[in-house]
Amino acid sequence: MFVSENLGVNAKGHLTIDGADTIELAQQYGTPLYVMDENLIRENLRRFHDSMNKFYEGRGEVHFASKAFSCMEMCRIVASEGDGLDAVSIGELYTAVKAGFPMEKVGFHGNNKSDEELRYCLEVGVGHIIVDNIPELHRLEAIAKDMGKKPHIMFRIKPGIEAHTHEKVLTGQIDSKFGFALETGEAFEAVKEAVSCGNVVFYGVHCHIGSQIFDIEPFEEAAKTMLGFIAKVKNELGYEIKGLNLGGGFGIKYLTEHDPEPFEKFIERVSAVVKAQCAELGIAQPRMYIEPGRAIVGSAGITLYKVGARKVIPDIRTYISVDGGMPDNPRYILYQSEYEAVVANKADQPRDEKVTIAGRCCESGDLIGENMPLQHAESGDIIAVLATGAYNFSMAMTYNRLQRPAVVFVKDGEARIGVRRESLDDIIRNDV
Ligand SMILES: *Cc1c(COP(=O)(O)O)cnc(C)c1O
Question: Between the CA of residue 80 and those of 88, 104, 265, 275, what are the distances in Å?
Fold first, then answer.
């Protein structure tokens, strides 16, 4: 009935998420409100790590990409499932540290890491630093030497794979700001230098080809290309690369008609390719890492809004204005992303109108979506926008000095606060 299977309708005709009544949540916690289904987050993590165990004999690790949704409670959930994290800033690292996350299971990314961030990585003992460029390698070496540490590193490689997705989330092609290029020999020269460094351990190679990818083929191609590179390094430099990190990017259902491959299929097919290639190339099977972000949290989240005005412009469109918008969900203004929505207090009624859901900011482009099928919505109704668990809260901003919404976690019908709503004093906290 709805795009995510954890959603239902109760006897009052109210939308439910993992059994919790969304209208009661909106009343209790206010709107806008992010609601995250803890059971579904855990199930998604398990689907990935269980299939790594099954198809790659337990020699794989799942690192949740924090940038999709980072807060301390999320770090605790990931830790309790035994999985790792991928972090891209000192803020994401700090969140993990404060949540008591085992930092040896963290990989640190970024195309422009600061010295402060590199030092912090060594101080808190992150498992791997994924090095993006040669100046960064040199800075890291100097910092490691100074601190008397020997961090494990991977190299971010651009494997030159084109996946079909939005161009702003394509990252594996040669014209990308991320990582070392394979085709030009840049990556090989960099590895030559890294394996002879005294202050770092060159452990692995990493690639991330993009995001919201539905096909398995680009992942298989990326794995093949990366293994070819591992074989080249072994044959020409006599150096064995132990880790292969294939990044994230697994696509999810935002609309009912979307039909991504199940996560298990990705892991099954990619594992088979890795094993076959290793046999063919005569190299040892590397430890395999994946970094799903969207796939873990996307479908697990919804956002609740209260409807203010209904504005009908005859023969043009109907605007339904809600009490949030681009500050809590900038994905429409960034990528024209599509979502499904439901009037949560009329969830048992048909969605027989087509409307534009507008945010409350002083921007005409501040929309949640256009041409969205919806029940007849009026002032005071609660609208749920579905599958907003990834890249919504984590991208939220305070434009127009709006307070960022609260995050509530739901588990077996019970809700608890994960992140409090910002107060007016939070808005002026750093003003002098
Ligand atoms: C963004 C990103 C991810 C996660 O991507 P999803 O599409 O959310 O799975 C993983 N690894 C790296 C390096 C990334 O930049």
Answer: 21, 15, 25, 29
d(C-alpha 105, C-alpha 321), whole Å: 43
CATH of residue 363's domain is 2.40.37.10
Q: In a 10 Å sphere around its CB, with 0-12 CB exposed, 13-18 middle and 19+ buried, how is residue 334 labelled? A: middle
* One pLDDT digit (tens) per residue for the chain, 432 residues: 899 999 999 999 999 999 999 999 999 999 999 999 999 999 999 999 999 999 999 899 999 999 999 999 999 999 999 999 999 999 999 999 999 999 999 999 999 999 999 999 999 999 999 999 999 999 999 999 999 999 999 999 999 877 666 666 666 677 788 999 998 999 999 999 999 989 999 999 999 999 999 999 999 999 999 999 999 999 999 999 999 999 999 999 999 999 999 999 999 999 999 999 999 999 999 999 999 999 999 999 999 999 999 999 999 999 999 999 999 999 999 999 999 999 999 999 999 999 999 999 999 999 999 999 999 999 999 999 999 999 999 999 999 999 999 999 999 999 999 999 999 999 999 999
Q: Which of 235, 270, 297 marks a domain boundary?
A: 297
- Segments in 56-133 forming alpha helices (H): 72-80, 90-98, 115-124
- Is residue 1 one of the residues assigned to a domain? no
User: Which of 44, 63, 67, 169 is the best mutation target for the ligand 1 pocket, counting ligand atoms within 8 Å of the beta carbon and taking the most?
Assistant: 67
Q: Which residue range forms the structural domain that includes residue 330?
A: 7-30+300-427
| Domain stops at, among 265, 281, 297 | 297
Q: Tell me, what DSSP letter sits at residue 381?
A: -
362 is known as an active-site residue: yes
CA of 294 to the centre of ligand 1 (A): 8
Alpha-helical regions (H) of 386-427: 424-427
Side-by-side strand order, sheet with 20-21:
7-9, 15-17, 20-21
Residue partners of 280: CB distance under 8 A and separation at least 6? none
What's the gap in Å between 143 CA and the centre of ligand 1?
27
Our mutation pick for probing the ligand 1 site, out of 61, 132, 205, 208, counting the most ligand atoms within 8 A of Cβ, is 208
CA dist list (Å): 337 to 148, 165, 333:
47, 12, 8
Q: What is the dihedral of CA 291, 294, 295, 296, to 10 degrees?
A: 80
